[in-house]
Amino acid sequence: MDFSKEKQLVIDLYANLDMATGAAIGTVLEQYYAPDCHWRGFHPFNELIGPQAVSETFWNPLRKSLTSMQRRMDIFMAGRNEIDGFQSTWVVSMGHLMGLFDHPWLGIRPTGKMAFLRYCEFNKIENGKIVETAMYFDIPHLMLQAGLNPFPPQTAAHLVQPGPRTHDGLLWGVQPAAAGEATLAAINAMIGDLGTWALGLPLEEELARTWHDDMIWWGPAGIGATYTIERYAKQHSAPFRAAFKDRSKTNHICRMAEGHFGGFFGWPNFTAVHAGGFMGMPASETRGEMRVIDIYRRRDDKLAENWIFIDLLHFWNGLGVDILTRMEELPGR
Fold first, then answer.
1. pLDDT, position 232
2. Residue 90: what are its φ and ψ, rounded to 5°?
3. Rg (CA), the chain
């Protein structure tokens, strides 16, 4: 399908937003956002209503901290939302917001050096306006760049993450409908296998049903990235499954695909009880929420790459661990 108008709206928003400063940021958002737009962001921003609230609470403080900001997109796509019966249209971008970290943000000390904030944004378009946004970003990764490690040693590696290996994630033009349908089918097959972690197969065999052996899982800071089914199973999937019990069903607000790329987000995606060990943290009987964005690249009939955004600050805060407050006690503060 042709999503040219919706894509152009977001392209124009970014062009104007990325040039704006101060009060002009709110003016730009008012031009492209509906007056009652619903914006969802990671802790401590959470849910905001209206363009001025988004400007004053999120964009203005961030732009004051990361000066000379550039938006460096790796994936840009649009599609109809499977969750509402393919009625609504969403535009998705993913990449990094890069700038000079010149002033504190959320209590994170500036470095005066280049810094990258990983982000992924879903925008729902109706009548020429953005009516809903999910803007997810990896705050712990920014903390690491500032010399602060808020978590115990992670099971995998964390890097400034690249875009697709194929370098073809910016889908400016119309894509073949069949390609998007195949990508969505591959994502749904993976979700169906995931279920409640009770398919009954050995983990690596389960994963091989829907993933290529040379898969790359680009996880968030605190967990890290891992490569190949065998290492993904050892360095994330198996430890993650062992650390949780009583997982709820998966719930998404949007799930879509275009071309060889697709993804979803939830608020939360699922809840579970932490039995202990995840990220080196103790167990808790409190049910925790996982707010997640997943972006995928399909190759042939299986998934090849996966970029993941998890609101770890919200998850741990719900279990009584305030990472931003604890950061003040880290060495070097």
1. 97
2. -125, 140
3. 19
Range name among 42-56, 196-210, 223-237, 266-280 with the lowest pLDDT average: 196-210
Report yes or no: 213 and 299 within 8 Å, Cβ to Cβ: no
The topology (CATH level 3) of 177-327 is Nuclear Transport Factor 2; Chain: A, (3.10.450)
What is the chain's length?
333
Tokens at residue 58, please?
């999120």
For the cut 60, the answer to whether the pLDDT of residue 196 exceeds it is no
Confidence band, pLDDT 50/70/90 cuts, at residue 150: confident
How confident is residue 270, by pLDDT bands cut at 50, 70 and 90?
Answer: very high
Binned at pLDDT 50, 70 and 90, residue 182 comes out as very high
The 3-state secondary structure of 252-263 reads CCEEEEECCEEE
Q: Which of 3.30.70.120, 3.10.450.50, 3.30.430.20, 3.40.190.10 is the CATH number of 4-145?
A: 3.10.450.50
pLDDT at 197: 64
In the structure encoding, which two tokens stand for residue 189, read together?
């097959």
Residue 195 clears pLDDT 80, i.e. is over it: no
Helical axes 23-32 vs 4-17, angle rounded to 10°: 170
- Say which residue the tokens 């961030």 belong to: 62
Identify the helix (H) or strand (E) that includes residue 7. helix 4-17
Q: Is the pLDDT of residue 331 over 60?
A: no
Question: Contact 126/299 with Cβ under 8 angstroms?
Answer: no
Cis peptide leading into 104, omega within 30 of 0? no
Dihedral, CA atoms, 50, 308, 177, 193, nearest 10 degrees? Answer: -120
Q: In the sheet that 33-41 helps form, which strands lie side by side, from edge to edge?
A: 47-49, 33-41, 129-137, 114-126, 89-101, 66-80
Q: Which two tokens stand for residue 208?
A: 């091989």
Domain borders along the chain are 4-145, 177-327
pTM of the entire predicted model: 0.95
Instruction: List, in sequence order, every residue forming a beta bridge with 61; answer none if it has no partner.
Output: none
